[in-house]
Amino acid sequence: MDHLDGNVLAGPTADLFLFEPTTTQGQCQSCADIAMLGQAMVYGQPMGFVARCRNCDNVLIVIIERAGQKSLSMRGLRWLRVADRAMNDRI
Amino acid sequence: MTTPAAGWLTGSLARAHPLTASARSITFTVPGWPGNDAGQHVDVRLTSSDGYQAVRSYSIASAGPGGEIELGIDRLPDGEVSPFLVDDLALGDTVELRGPLGGWFVWRPEQTQPVQLIAGGSGVVPFIAMTRTHASVCSSAPMQLLYSLRTPNDAFFRDELSQPSATARTTWHYTRTVPPGWSRSAGRLTAEDLKSKTLPPEQAPLTYVCGPTGFVETVSRALTSLGHAPDTIRTERFGGT
Q: Any idea what the CATH number is for the domain that residue B211 is in?
């Protein structure tokens, strides 16, 4: 199955996070690679979105959208580094 | 960063024109659209009469402030959404839009480092937004585009990319059919092509690659082998539906 980039997570997570996820840095629990979420490999429709580490393929994030609800699992991330809101709203 | 408006907005088709035999430019008027950065995308949601919904992400060809956005859509034969947008959507019809989205695959006017854009097929759309922005702000950052196409007839926005006032030079590459007198025979982009037609690592460019997954894989791997650091390569893949 073809994968996409973490960029595609921006839409589905727009109402989950106050920050812009694709320019947020995170560390992979499995291999310690540090990357922007926009750099992750994302496997999309139809069930939801599975974001995997670009380096070791570990599952970082799972988002399932069903019946008007979203389930979010961030089991493969050690941490996320979120810029302060004032820094995020640059324009 | 231009942050998305809350929830879904309603876009009304204001203008449309064919880009190729299978693709169409569609411009929506979107009340509440906060403007967007070059390279951002939008989610388009269609709802059928029985309530079934389909959502797809599309890059935006326009950039800047204002309540209009232009998309360039290629009809995928087995697609659920693109055939409708290319063939059936009429002026005045509405769709639901969520965005603008994404902050990673974006070029901003304050960026000063050299920029290499590499497009495969309809992957050129976000680069149209970047080259338009580059021209409109009179950027002094070097920017150039390598555009890989099946045949000369498959070019999106050829006139715009070729006009003398374009501030980003476009290098054309053909994988199936070349124009008469073309020096290189038709074939997929190779590491050798990338070496001769893109900015070298010594110039420390930021390289953006957009196209089908296979194209992006091949190109980004070749760029790494030419000595570009992985973090200087930004990619946007699109899938087959």
A: 3.40.50.80
Partner residue facing A38 (CB), from B4, B99, B102: B102
Chain B residues inside the 8 Å CB shell of A15: 6-7
Q: CB A15 to CB B7 under 8 A?
A: yes
Q: Is A44 at the interface with chain B, CB within 8 A?
A: yes
Residues listed for chain B = 241
Distance between B235 CA and the closest CA of chain A, angstroms = 7
The residue ranges of chain B whose pLDDT is under 50 are: 241
**Chain centroid, CA A14 distance in Å:** 11
Residue A90 reports pLDDT greater than 80: no
Q: How far is CA A49 from CA A52, A59, A63, B99, B197, in A?
A: 10, 11, 5, 18, 36
ipTM of the complex in this document: 0.73
Q: What is the pLDDT of residue B175?
A: 97
- What is the span of the domain harbouring residue B213? 115-238
Q: B110: closest CA among B129, B131, B133, B87?
A: B133
In a domain, B25, yes or no: yes
Beta bridge partners of B175: none
Q: Are B90 and B187 part of one and the same domain?
A: no
Q: Which of residues B57, B73, B101 is at a domain's end?
A: B101
DSSP 3-state of B145: strand
* CA separation for the pair B76, B72 (Å, rounded): 13
Predicted pLDDT of residue B164: 83
Q: Which long-range contacts (CB under 8 A, 24 or more apart) does B87-93 make?
A: B89/B13, B89/B16, B89/B26, B90/B13, B91/B13, B91/B14, B91/B15, B91/B16, B92/B12, B92/B13, B93/B12, B93/B13
Which positions in chain A touch B43 (Cβ < 8 Å)? Answer: 11
